[in-house]
Request: fold
Amino acid sequence: MTKLERLLACDGLFIGGHRGFSSDYPENTLLAVQEACKLGVDLIEVDVYLSKDNVPVIAHDEHLERCSTGKGLVGDYTLKELKQLDFGIHRGAAFEGLHLPTLEQFLDMMRGYPEVLLNIDFKVYSRTLDTVERVMPIMKETGMDDRAIYNCIDCEIVRHIATKYGKKTVSAPHDFPWRVNYVPGPNGSFQYMWGICIPIDMLDKAHVDLYRENGIAIVCTPADTPEQVDLAMSLNVTLPMPDDPREYLKRRGA
Reply:
């Protein structure tokens, strides 16, 4: 059984790195990814958008202001223009000069960590479907699809990925106000989901029981503090995705 197969079977505790080791390094940069891999995480979660010239790039926000020296939307810039922006300086001078990676640069790095799985998060924006259609062939062509799970909170994208590509996804709680059509049953979107990513402030036994009764794995984020780790582990979360994985790794190794 491969590591991905064990994850999909919920066979044990799998520890993710949310946007890499994002508590200590600029999120979604190759540095944050590398440092998370060096810690020993089982999975790296990153977020993907399309540049103006249709190149999949790794960034969490559609808007550039929070994490870079740019202004406006990721999709308003070509890849060449995005590469001129600094994606590290917002976390301090020590990180000045870091750039956002393309999806393919991220995948190239991950070849050096063959035991680490990938979680590709499709953000909801005007070009989400286009992004899926660009990313999925790259994942297959690079041979990385066999190490990946996929994530989206849009139930139509969840359905599309399942029906076109045969991949069940991680999604978000049905009681998010804008996702009320996440429902169980043969015609509901639960059938297209492998897992549900529950924010730590919504994680409780009632939610966990609801999804597990429908055969859906429990993922949570960010869950970094000892108290949050206690909660996640007491509920047997399959895939916690903290910004700082060290507490989980320490407990698993104890």
The CA atoms of residues 26 and 88 lie 6 Å apart. Strands lie at 16-18, 43-50, 56-58, 117-122, 148-151, 169-171, 193-199, 217-221, 239-240. Residues 3-253 form a domain with the TIM Barrel fold (CATH 3.20.20.190).
